[in-house]
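In response to reviewer comment 3 from the previous cycle, which asked for concrete evidence that the modeling workflow produces usable outputs, we include below a single protein chain processed end to end. The sequence was submitted unchanged, and the resulting structure tokens are shown without manual editing.
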Amino acid sequence: MVSFALGFVLGVWGLQQLAWLPALPAYWPLALLGLWLPRSLPPWSRQLLIAACAMLLGFSYAATVAKHRLADILPAAWQGRDIELVGVVAELPRMQAGAQRFLFEVEQTLTPQAQVPRYLLLTRYVPRNGALPPALQAGQRWRVTVRLKQPHSTRNPYTQDFELWALERDIGATGYVHEKTAPQLLDAQVPGIAYDIQRLRGALRVRILDVLADAPHAGIIAALAIGDQASIPQESWRLFTRTGINHLMSISGLHITMLSGLFFALTYQLWRRIPWLTLRLPARKGATLVAVAVALAYSLLSGFDIPAQRTFYMLAAFALMLWSSRNVALSQMLAIALLAVLLVDPWAVLAPGFWLSFGAVALILYVTAHRLQRPHWLMEYAKVQWAMTLGLIPLLLAWFQQLSLVSPLTNAFAIPLVGLLIVPATLLGTLLPLDWPLHLAHGLTTWCIALLRTFDQLPFAVWTQHAPPSWSLLPGLLGVLWLLAPRGIPLRPLGAILLAPLFINHPNAPAPGTARIHVLDVGQGLSVAVQTAHHNLLFDTGPDYPGEADSGSRILVPALRGLGVDRLDMMVLSHGDLDHVGGTLSVLQAIPTDRILSALRRDDPRLDGHAQERCEEGGHWEWDGVHFDILHPGAQTSGKRHDNNHSCVLAIHIGEQQVLLTGDIERRAEATLLSKHAATLLSTVLVAPHHGSHSSSSQAFVQATSPQYVVFTAGYRNRFHHPHPEVVQRYRQQGAELLASDVDGALRFELDGRLVRLERYREYARRYWTHAAE
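The workflow returned the following structure tokens.
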């Protein structure tokens, strides 16, 4: 079973690495027949052949599911058109600033000939008149007019992929409710078990928020009760991640196991005392049924994510073992759970939670199972914590580029506090008409967070670094297993040598006199990272997303860390528009920054108390043979923070080449540049002014810059219709190669003074699911 599960995982993972989805495989029979192997084969060859057949089967299964899922994507011809639909709010709506975001299950398409996927991710905004519409509730049937587009993700290295997320959840389009035709509620309660579960989640969330009112950590209590992770503020998530307990602050496998075990013990004690029940069914089997039912109910209430799935399937496997009176190894139960998760969700192999969840359980088995002597429970608990801390290092560095060094200490008190006190009190107050348990849970949470903040303020709380090279992960995992091996295994400390490449391998920096320019894909906004041999600069920080994580925490911080940027020598904020400075605070909190050039107010909260200097014409400096010049605005300009024409313009000279970053300047500022610097505007790479707006890129400016490459940084199907067709045509006629972040993803330019090497991230990291959105 273990060999089959591992082979199946490798096959599924292999399919998810492909740039193109292959034709539907015709070798299912071969894969299935290969499982009936002669028992006369040597054990090692039999296991190898089983794994190979399972790999083929996993590849075939994942390809079949993917082909079926991709068939239900919104056709390009129906993007941006008004479509009238009837459907049901399929999940608990997520509240955002001035909007509700919800999953909509389409039942009927009223617009003739419209082709609409079954599941849509929709947003309903507050109308311009400010009148708040009735809140949507899970399980309601509505008639709505929507405007849709295909799922589209910003594409940057080391960041999340929304297109994959949507495909995994069978979401074939995203869009918004068009209020020109008022939505009509057709049915307040649509029957169905799935809808009933979502309605229950909504009712429990309302109860929690009503009882706790404006309590600061009410969202955390809601997350622990019903898995509503969206209710936890981003600042709290940052604290949990830095202290290594983010796995506890939502419904996790630990919570499900604890609750299931509690009901098993209670049921067993009651059942064995009722003779007629015991005569019909042994108490242990009856208690097992109740425990599995409770685990399933709590898992469904949580949203049934990967940790919940893994825990439930393992508990179900254990229950099946009891019922069949068979002795099944824990490794086999883990393999069964692994297969069950991938059969339901083949894309789970790409999620960090999948590997962290199963990896954690495998580590626990590795350090506790088959030992000759059982240590004291406190020593065993400490041993498990040490295994978790050490064993997950390769995966945490690969995905998050940081390690919480205080996590052994924080988990030592947080696991019993959350698992034994906060969660039971939360469930008691949520499911029963009692308010005091919720207040108790909130008080304990407040105390827990106060302790976490104390640990977070320690100078050694978090280790951050670049993403390790992919080849170093396998040696790192082998080193972990060697270090955690049982006593008697020789030279265990030498396992640390295999971990060393994870820490000492640094991405190659540009050579002196060269520069690496990363135009990041932040949607409708701008952010450009500049690397020289020993210095790093960030020009603008992209947009903020009301009610969600900003581009700093979502895109810039993981991308910069992955690229090897552990410190910014300078941050330049071109002007105060939110699509250019929205991620500033998150970047400053995560990455040390020496200097800031900007036009923001000195007391702007986004600066996080950092001093700033005015971005002003005449400023210049040199790093590693690369020259930087500020060309605009002039010293005499008073300027408004949100005046596009007072954007900072930065020219970067690499030998005979020039990169020009222009912010949001429009024609008036372009005319000023032409009057002062016409002879020096010729550019190799130009980031188009104001995202390619019609109010910028005048004919004279285009001719003066005459770029070899022009980059339009705009959101996919943005409401401003950037870049404007006339602007695009001007650059095309000038002979520039046109690039766009919404089409090409992040762009990397390597300039050495003579040659330019260009890498388009959508092309470089192409996967089969990205094609539907292009």
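Residues 645 and 665 are 5 Å apart (CA to CA). We consider this sufficient to address the reviewer's concern, and the full set will be provided in the supplementary archive.
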